[in-house]
Amino acid sequence: MLNPFAYEVHIVNIQQWLQELIPEAYRRYQPVLERALMHFVQSLGPERQQAIVQNQLAAHTSAERMTGLMRDCPTLHKLGQLLARDLRLQESFREKLRELESCLPLARAEDYDWPLELRPQEALAEGSVASVFACSWGETEVVCKQLKPGVAEKLREEFAIWEELGGKLGEWCRQEELPVFDFRTVLASLVRLLEDELHPSREQRQLLLAAQRFQNLPEVQVPRLYPQLRGLVMERLYGTPLLEHERAAELFPLAVRVLITDPFFTSEEDGIFHLDPHPGNMWVSRDGRLALLDWGSVLILSKERRALLTHALLSAWRGDQQDWEFYASQLTGAPVGACPRSGTLSGLLSPDAWGEQFPIDLILLRKILFHLEGIEAQLGESQLMWHVFTQAGVRFLAELPLRLAAPPDWRGFSTHLSNLDLVRHTVLHFLKPSGWQD
């Protein structure tokens, strides 16, 4: 069969888009990105390629064409939501990408399969995998999250392409003398994560866990679930997107607390992180509470992983390469690079420092930090790291009475450091003995 895309390359001109859109910081990756995106699109079925071409004809700029392609492909849509907060990209491009965070559904309400109890009223938002509609359930206003028509088939097709690309990316990076990572494992893990969003029952469980977690924190709100109805049906929350609210700067430290420091600095075995905290999923409710929407994906970090990461980052802060390698290699299971030196939290999780086996849980944690740093930049602040350290300090002070009676090597604290660990890091920071061994 003839490939219609082959005759429309001048319309889907990926090379031109990237030339205009990629900042200098990413320029060396352009040849690999071009090959990867071209391979991805050309591997799609003819009908999808033709639909992409038709949508490209309606676009006028490279930014519109790139975001249009992302919206046509669920996996690229998810990637675009993350890049929308990358400050190294042009502001005009990031503005277009931010439309992917909360756009209106392309499909009509009648194209979805509705529970008999619900009557759809209006479309509210569309993500990479699902759309959200306001509905009525008798006299009650609710929202229903529905998988987009045909999205499961699209994802299966795209997952297979990414699996194939996982092997090719390493080869192309070597040809361009770029850093090489375990792309196959990373992509496979990310694919499994996105696939979770195809199962509403998982988000139901995660919503219930979130409601339990915040039950003693009245400043935070998550949608109430209606489990008796088929599908994912929740209460309708009214409010304003966080970045559009006059109290955005005031509420940002609370967002940092519930999204980063509370799940990280907890003595519980599992720290549960909201994995998609872009501004479209954070609202200020009418009564002034911070509302967290879309619990389709979460990251779970065990206490052991959080403790190792705490030690690794403290070692990096001290500039202790030997200590950094000891702790960081336990997280990666492989050799690591030079300890990171960065003024941002996401920079401490730079792939360059973590080596070829950069673990998927740290990649996802970095994704969360990217979102928060993007919000911070839009607020005109540079306080994210300060908020995290301050809130960690408050937890440490609360632990002091317990520390007085705890065994010296006990690490059950929410800050993951025993009394001996504190002494050790303090001594190494001030004395830096060259022959210190762990």
Number of domains as seen in the coordinates: 3
What structural class results from the helix and strand content?
A: alpha+beta
Q: Report the average pLDDT across residues.
A: 87
- SSE sequence, one letter per element: HHHHHHEEEHHHEEEHEEEEHHHHHH
List segments where confidence is low: pLDDT < 50 over at least 5 consecutive residues.
1-11, 433-438
Give me the side-by-side strand order of the main sheet. 1-2-3-5
Estimated helix fraction: 40-55%
Main sheet characteristics: 4 strands, antiparallel
Number of strands: 10
Shape: globular
Tell me the β content. 5-15%
Number of helical stretches of at least 4 residues? 16
Note the gap between the termini: 63 Å
Rg measurement, Å: 23 Å
Characteristic terms for this protein:
438 residues, alpha+beta, Phosphorylase Kinase, domain 1, 3 domains, 4-stranded antiparallel β-sheet, 4-stranded mixed β-sheet, 16 helices, 10 strands, globular, disordered N terminus
